TrEMBL record:
It comes from Bradyrhizobium guangdongense. This is Indoleacetamide hydrolase. GO terms for molecular function: catalytic activity. Transmembrane segments: none annotated. Hydrolyzes indole-3-acetamide (IAM) into indole-3-acetic acid (IAA). Residues 26-450 form the Amidase domain. Gene3D superfamilies: Amidase signature (AS) domain (3.90.1300.10).
């Protein structure tokens, strides 16, 4: 365990506060100091609420002194993607349109973290309306990767990935509709959990795609993700799509070994046309999992390109439906790339959308049949490491559109199927950029993914490495 509060994991700092080894005020002050150092370089925060956070930390310490603990996150400062409504606080959703939007309700996931004792540090940057894979934002500027400021963080949970990697917050809520948790986790070297559709309530989270949106955490470790999932998962009367499927003991799952688990490696698609360094990290990851007792087998999955295309189609149509009024009344207030994506959705015929939706059940059944013999699948989160901000900007050259398509090629199929997926830091390129592998699981079996991720992190240190503050 690090002695510097900002470098602790969520689990470690929560325990240190509970055991009175650290005060909430000390921890909050340490994070605010680090935020002041890093924010000018990263642009990871939308708002930094130093005075309110320190005041809340003082209250938390006073409560603790009286023997009053709200829950397992008592006094722990956190920041989240600026699309989770918090009554009385502005939620910009990364947009001009909602720059001054003050919700009157609090999202269920955020409220559950508040009930567990978390302190609000501020809010984190994101792609406009959570619709973009890079971290670019035409209104508020790009978020930068702490491992190399010239490179992207991935999106749309750009501030979440960047701030967790730089140790500016212990964890952050993100959202994943087409890869928006797993991309930043991969590119920034943190752990990110895309949950099963319905595992976590979406009430009070800005909608993008009604059938694809998922809520999940980004943190430093699988153990931290397990702690957060245990707090936010479960049914919710405010969200009819939140499942009553039984919950697991996610934290206990992180203590298990890999012995007896069978992990599949796709025979194609996820291993095709990989960047050589991503391919190397995949091989090294497989070797570690095998050494730790997992049985590694090849799996032949159904056509993943079809799933990827269908996911894009559904996302575009549903996002356009949500934004139609604003596109008519306020088109000038959108960034050019966001508006283009939304307008493309308006051109999708209803029949085409309905055919894609009707295919989701058979597609999931086919996937389950192909993966029936394995507990999880391991694959790269993306075929490439983080590109530069310049080369991934649509205005940056003729190759940018194809690059953007490639970024989320490996994440979109999982969204279409509604499955859970955990991305874990798995290595670095020779130039020092992180590479993450995603573990793809069975519906509502986040526990097995957390078991595998935690076991991998017990024998590797990629998640412990910290980027250096630019000079």
């Amino acid at each position: 365990m690090s002695l510097e509060p900002a470098l602790m994991t969520l689990t470690e700092v929560a325990r240190a506060i509970a055991m009175k080894q650290l005060s909430s005020h000390e921890v909050t002050r340490a994070l605010l100091h680090r935020i002041a150092q890093w924010q000018p370089h990263l642009n990871a925060f939308m708002s930094i609420e130093s005075e309110a956070a320190l005041k809340a930390a003082g209250v938390a310490d006073a409560e603790f002194a009286k023997g009053e603990a709200r829950g397992p996150l008592h006094g722990v400062p956190l920041a989240h993607k600026d699309m989770y409504y918090d009554a009385g606080h502005v939620a910009t959703c990364g947009s001009l349109i909602r720059r001054d939007f003050v919700p009157t309700v609090t999202s269920t996931a955020l409220q559950r973290l508040k009930d567990a004792g978390q302190i609000r540090l501020g809010t984190l940057h994101l792609a406009e309306f959570a619709y973009g894979p890079t971290g670019h934002n035409a209104h508020y500027g790009p978020v930068r990767n702490p491992w190399n400021l010239a490179h992207i963080t991935g999106g749309s949970s750009s501030g979440s990935g960047s701030s967790v990697a730089a140790r500016l917050t212990y964890a952050a809520l993100g959202s994943d509709t087409g890869g928006s948790i797993r991309m930043p986790a991969h590119f920034c070297g943190v752990t990110g959990l895309k949950t099963t559709v319905g595992r976590v309530s979406r009430a009070g989270a800005m909608p993008l795609s009604q059938s694809l949106d998922t809520v999940g955490p980004l943190a430093r470790t699988a153990e931290d993700c397990a702690l957060l999932l245990a707090l936010i998962a479960g049914p919710d009367p405010e969200d009819s799509t939140a499942s009553h499927e039984p919950l697991s003991d996610y934290v206990a799952a992180t203590k298990s070994s890999l012995k007896g688990l069978k992990i599949g490696v796709p025979a194609s698609f996820y291993v095709d046309d990989l960047d050589s360094e991503v391919a190397r990290v995949l091989d090294e990851t497989i070797a570690v999992l095998k050494r730790e007792g997992a049985d590694i087998v090849k799996v032949e999955l159904p056509d993943q390109r079809q799933l990827s295309s269908a996911s894009q189609l559904v996302l575009a149509a549903e996002a356009a439906a949500f934004h139609k009024r604003w596109m008519i009344e306020r088109p000038q207030d959108y960034g050019a790339q966001t508006l283009m994506r939304l307008q493309n959705g308006l051109a999708i015929p209803a029949i085409t959308y309905l055919e894609a939706m009707r295919w989701r059940g058979p597609a999931l059944a086919a996937h389950n049949a192909a993966a029936a013999g394995v507990d999880a699948i391991v694959a790269p989160a993306s075929p490439i490491p983080a590109p530069t901000i310049e080369e991934s900007d649509v205005g940056g050259g003729p190759n940018a559109p194809a690059l953007l398509q490639r970024l989320t090629l490996f994440t979109r199929p999982v969204n279409f199927l509604g499955l859970p997926s955990l991305t874990v830091p798995s290595g670095f390129t020779r130039s020092g950029l992180p590479v993450g592998m995603q573990l793809i699981g069975r519906s509502f079996d986040e526990a097995t993914l957390l078991t595998i991720g935690a076991a991998f992190q017990r024998v590797t240190d990629y998640h412990d490495r910290v980027p250096k503050l630019p000079s």
